[in-house]
Amino acid sequence: MNIPNRITISRILLIPVFILLLTLPLDWGSVSIGSNSIPMVHLVSALIFIIASGTDWVDGYYARKYNLVTNLGKFLDPMADKLLVSAAFVLLVELGMAPAWLVIIILSREFAVTGLRLVAAGEGIVLAAGQMGKWKTTFQLVSISFLLLHDFPFSYLDLGFSVGTILLYIALILTVISGLDYFIKNWHVMKESK
């Protein structure tokens, strides 16, 4: 197994740690930042989430730079992303930090695109992620991070609105648009499927 795939697996292994931190009744106190107070468990969870998210860039960069792109990597990398993002969104709903309807739309798009990729794979076609999908993922990761960090560093500014929530709605819009774009561009896979 090459290094990029090991990095991807490390991302997958961080997911249970992230989940346990946010679901176990841990009380490590809180940190006051500006007019906000961040529970220490949210801060630690956010750091783990950010590190796990960062491994996505590292494994992709390393695989492309050293020509270590493998079929296993093509499978593991998007799966790791979806597992991490799905876990984070479900936990944000449980914590009351994201509306359930919004998360259902985002996760539905992810399942639908994964289904289309599976149909394509059955036909021997590999569907790469488009630029819009990459923007969608970026906004999802950044919005989750800001929500877990209770808007730090913007909490210092006392803006009167949540930057994380605004980024979450932008992520929702990009998720819907990129999903429609993905299906429109790849509809031939569904039509030609046996």
Give the gist of this structure.
The protein is mostly helical and 194 residues long. It has 7 helices and 2 strands; from the N terminus they run H-E-E-H-H-H-H-H-H.
Walk me through what this model shows:
This is CDP-diacylglycerol--glycerol-3-phosphate 3-phosphatidyltransferase. It catalyses: a CDP-1,2-diacyl-sn-glycerol + sn-glycerol 3-phosphate = a 1,2-diacyl-sn-glycero-3-phospho-(1'-sn-glycero-3'-phosphate) + CMP + H(+). Helix 2 packs antiparallel against helix 3. The protein has 194 residues and is mostly helical. It has 7 helices and 2 strands, in the order αββαααααα. The model has no long low-confidence stretch (mean pLDDT 89).
What distinguishing features does this structure have?
194 residues; 2 strands; mainly alpha
**Judging from the principal axes of the Cα atoms, what is the shape?**
globular
- Find the count of extended strands (DSSP E, 2+ residues): 2
Oligomeric composition of the shown chains: single chain
Average residue-wise pLDDT: 89
- Overall helicity: over 70%
CATH domain topology: Four Helix Bundle (Hemerythrin (Met), subunit A)
String of helices and strands: HEEHHHHHH
Provide the CATH superfamily: CDP-alcohol phosphotransferase transmembrane (TM) domain
- Cα radius of gyration in angstroms: 18 Å
Percent of sequence in beta strands: under 5%
